[in-house]
Specification:
By secondary structure, the protein is mostly helical. The chain has nine helices and no strands. Helix 1 packs across helix 4 (63-77) and helix 8 packs antiparallel against helix 9 (177-189).
Length: 208
């Protein structure tokens, strides 16, 4: 981005090193955009005239040809004003933050599930302290069913249902709930199970 002369108000020509830094920055941005899916690109403020170049770049897989096309894409992007490119970068940063929040939320759900299976009523009591509205009977039943599945090496239906129950509890009313619903089933299906574990530590006594 060019500066201005404080006395004359005229734009100053950027130095060659600055021009190179800016060109590399645009090339890096072009590479990021070319790696996104169409649905991700649709959420960004990308000018219409750049979309065909992006679509063409995404289709190229050969290394040399892709490198050449990325350079051409960056050249087209440098024709846009600084405000346009900054808006794209800002949107990318926000999208990345949202993705990180979602991943963190899913990890929290998975951590609580594993604690319930390993620690039993002690973990459940702590969870209820944080979320008094939780269905204690339902959670205890799902934990018992999951442990039984593991012992009998049965399909992990209760294990997945426990994930969904905890997800709804922990994310209810939160900003990440909508995104969590979109990915939760895939996350549950992709879990690796160790059915040899007996799940010791949970008290399978009568419900209170």
């Amino acid at each position: 981005m060019r500066g201005r002369d404080e006395e004359t108000g005229e734009y100053l020509s950027p130095s060659r090193s600055q021009q190179r830094r800016e060109a590399l920055g645009v090339l890096e941005l072009a590479e990021k955009l070319a790696s996104l899916t169409p649905s991700q690109l649709a959420r960004l403020p990308i000018p219409e005239d750049l979309l065909p170049h992006l679509q063409h770049t995404r289709k190229i897989t050969a290394h040399i040809a892709r490198k050449r096309q990325l350079a051409y894409l960056a050249k087209q992007m440098r024709r846009e004003d600084d405000e346009t490119l900054d808006a794209i970068r800002d949107a990318l940063d926000e999208d990345g933050k949202a993705a990180r929040r979602e991943v963190a939320a899913m990890h929290r759900v998975e951590a609580w599930r594993e604690r319930l299976l390993a620690e039993g009523d002690a973990a459940l009591a702590e969870l209820l302290d944080e979320h008094p509205g939780a269905d204690r009977q339902r959670l205890r039943q799902l934990v018992r069913s999951t442990l039984e599945e593991r012992k009998r090496n049965k399909p992990p239906r209760a294990f997945r249902e426990l994930f969904r129950e905890l997800r709804a509890l922990l994310l209810a009313g939160g900003a990440g709930e909508a995104a969590a619903h979109a990915h939760a089933d895939d996350a549950a299906d992709s879990d690796e199970f160790d059915f040899d574990e007996a799940g010791e530590g949970f008290d399978p006594g009568d419900d209170d």
